[in-house]
Design a protein that fits this description.
It is a single chain. The protein is α/β, with parallel strands linked by helices. It has five domains: 3-195, 3-Layer(aba) Sandwich (Rossmann fold), CATH 3.40.50; 203-329 and 523-547, Rossmann fold, CATH 3.40.50.300; 338-412 and 494-511, Orthogonal Bundle (Arc Repressor Mutant, subunit A), CATH 1.10.10.10; 416-489; 560-630, Orthogonal Bundle (Arc Repressor Mutant, subunit A), CATH 1.10.10. Helices cover 46% and strands 15% of the residues. It has 25 helices and 21 strands. Helix 5 runs parallel beside helix 6, helix 14 crosses helix 16 and helix 23 (560-588) crosses helix 25 (605-617). The termini are far apart.
């Protein structure tokens, strides 16, 4: 099939969006390609269509586990075989998934970058017929980017396994420095770059210096029709602010990564279907959510960087209709950010301390633990060892940078199971253990394919079908696991830590201080860019575009700065017109101030009185008794 036939058959679109077809053709010609498409520009189609047009499998690297799972489900719904391998899966699960990629008809293998550190994964990829390597959120490979992920540096290892396979790197935001870094780190042979302008002509960027942010949040929601997103920094704030909106008669809900996956999905759908008008969320919300009619995106707190701000603000107005991106700012925000900056860079002794506390927390012996993954209850861990949460999170990121462990802040893995014995062996077990027969029969009727692959399972559904409680179902599955009948992996929604190396002695733990210093300098630079954007009186769109190296952009004409300039210019023109009219009136005859103000037709009453006052102060007119005349 041609790429247009593939687009029509699987996506039911008659035409590609701007630049998609050119990017796809570049990939099909075997070129390494960097594509910069704004949020909502349809990045996934750029690798999914060419992969479908060629024999073999496409490997997709993405740090966004929730988005990976959404894309896998969407592809499966289209009848396209796709799987994902993420942190928290058992070795057996990974083994089976990789076998299916080599011997089965899987078209897309989604991997978190941490998985590329695994020798098992790399060894098996060697035997796959790979047709394309797609790197989503490619800015994560650059230490100059706002969201650097050290495991991304290992993507280049795939090139050694499949040197003739093209790489497609995709991102919504990248400065010139980051673009160059992406090409270098991914060992691009020839750099074909597609870049759409970052300008969003329908978004009005607004910064409001506001002490009473709650009042302003309410005022915007009442003043702008349609649905909106409000971004805040903490999970606690999401619930408090959603309640505040509801208490004031505006339907709102909250969203953050700590919610159970089913609940997150339900909240998203309620908002997408306009049953809820406003979603109050942390930055965990928005990736892959294509709601076209968002009329406003408000940042109650300062964003991490202008890249993050641009991506999040860009979720407004995807239908090309007018939308507002509002940043609420006051001086206290600067103080908060400075404090966060300090906590983001723990000392080397503090990083080493977190590492050893973590190993003790999981009772790992020295030289043990390589390849093991653990759920991390961050609150419990920090409480037990009296650690600051933000500093600990950042210590974990630096330990990840030096490849002692990998850390995912939130991983939801649904419950799944697989039979570990043959169909005949299971039948014999049922005959010998008739008490288990109804339970096993219900499992077999409910879930197909469970002898070959791990299958997703919902304990609630199984409880309903067996007329047992959910807890009884869980206990039953665990007992069958003890009998070696099946392997049962219970759902988890905790952050996860994976030890990439055996536990090290303190003197063997090397932390790269130079890399920390470079990160600190990059963080400071990005933080200052956000403050400059918030405080300078220059066209907001021009400032954002200049940050992304579009230096000759025109003024947008409708951000808060441009509108303020227009108001001032209009006010000056109105003042000149009123002044001329007053001179003409007084040239005919002296007039008292009341008659003069009511006789003038230009401007409103306040503007006329202000003009009279300024003309008196400048000596252009004067009183002669109770009447005004023109000064000599």
């Amino acid at each position: 099939m041609t790429i247009h036939q593939i687009l029509k058959q699987y996506w039911n679109h008659d035409a590609f969006r701007p630049m998609q077809a050119e990017i796809i053709q570049s990939v099909l010609l075997g070129h390494d390609t960097l594509a910069l498409l704004p949020t909502g520009g349809g990045k996934s189609v750029c690798f999914q269509v060419p992969a479908m047009a060629k024999d073999g499998i496409c490997i997709v690297i993405s740090p966004l586990i929730a988005l990976m799972k959404d894309q896998v489900e969407n592809l499966k719904a289209k009848g396209i075989e796709a799987i994902s391998i993420v942190s928290g899966m058992s070795k057996r699960e990974i083994d089976i998934a990789l076998d299916n990629c080599i011997y089965g008809d899987v078209k897309f293998l989604y991997l978190s970058p941490e998985r590329l550190l695994s020798e098992l994964v790399r060894e098996r990829i060697k035997y796959m017929k790979v047709n394309l390597i797609a790197v989503d959120e490619a800015h994560c490979i650059s230490q100059w980017g706002y969201d650097f992920r050290p495991p991304y540096l290992h993507i280049a290892d795939l090139r050694e396994l499949h040197p003739d396979v093209p790489v497609l790197a995709l991102t919504a935001t990248a400065t010139a420095e980051v673009r160059e870094d992406i090409r270098e780190k991914l060992h691009f042979k020839s750099a074909v770059v597609f870049q759409k302008s970052f300008e969003r002509k329908n978004i009005s960027y607004v910064v409001q210096n506001e002490e009473d942010k709650l009042r302003k949040l309410l005022s915007i929601a009442r003043g702008v029709n349609g649905s909106g997103i409000v971004y805040v920094r903490s999970r606690k704030e999401t619930t408090e602010l959603a309640k505040f909106y509801n208490d004031n008669g505006i339907k709102a809900d909250f969203y953050h990564a700590g919610l159970e996956a089913g609940l997150r999905s339900q909240k998203q759908e309620n908002w997408k279907d306009n049953r809820i008008r406003i979603i109050v969320a942390t930055n965990a919300f928005g990736m892959g959510i294509d709601k076209p009619d968002v009329r406003f995106v408000i940042h109650k707190d300062m964003p991490e960087s202008l890249e993050a701000y641009y991506q999040e603000a860009g979720r407004g107005g995807r239908d090309e209709q007018k939308a507002y991106a509002v940043l609420l700012y006051n001086y206290a925000d600067r103080l908060k950010q400075e404090k966060k900056f300090e906590l983001s860079f723990p000392t080397i002794p503090e990083i080493k301390q977190v590492y050893h506390y973590l190993a003790n927390y999981y009772q790992l012996a020295y030289e043990a633990g390589e390849g093991l993954s653990f759920d991390l209850d961050l609150a419990d861990f920090c409480s037990r060892f009296k650690l600051d949460v933000i500093k600990t999170l950042n210590a974990l990121k630096f330990l990840e940078q030096d490849e002692y462990l990998s850390f995912n802040e939130s991983v939801f893995l649904p419950s799944r199971f697989r039979f570990e014995i043959t169909n005949e062996e299971l039948y014999n077990f049922q005959i010998q253990n008739p008490g288990w027969d109804p339970f096993i029969k219900t499992i077999l009727r409910s879930y197909g394919g469970s002898f070959e692959n791990y299958v997703r399972l919902r304990e609630f559904d199984l409880a309903r079908r067996t007329q047992m409680s959910v807890q009884q179902v869980i206990e039953g599955l665990k007992q069958l696991q003890q009998f070696n009948i099946l392997n049962y992996q219970q759902q988890t929604d905790q952050p996860q830590v994976t030890f990439l190396k055996p536990r090290q002695q303190s003197n063997a733990l090397y932390i790269d201080k130079k890399a920390i210093d470079e990160r600190q300098a990059t963080y400071r630079k990005k933080m200052e860019a956000v403050f400059a954007y918030a405080t300078h009186k220059k066209c907001r769109s021009q400032m954002l575009l200049a940050y992304f190296d579009e230096s000759n952009a025109d003024k947008c004409g409708f951000c808060d700065v441009c509108l303020d300039e227009k108001r001032k210019k209009n006010a000056a023109e109105i003042f000149d017109d009123i002044t001329n009219e007053i001179v003409n009136l007084l040239s005919n005859a002296p007039l008292d101030i009341g008659t003069l103000v009511t006789s003038a037709k230009t401007g409103n009453e306040k503007e006329r009185i202000d003009a009279v006052r300024l003309m008196l102060d400048a000596g252009k007119i004067k009183f002669a008794g109770e009447k005004l005349i023109i000064s000599d």
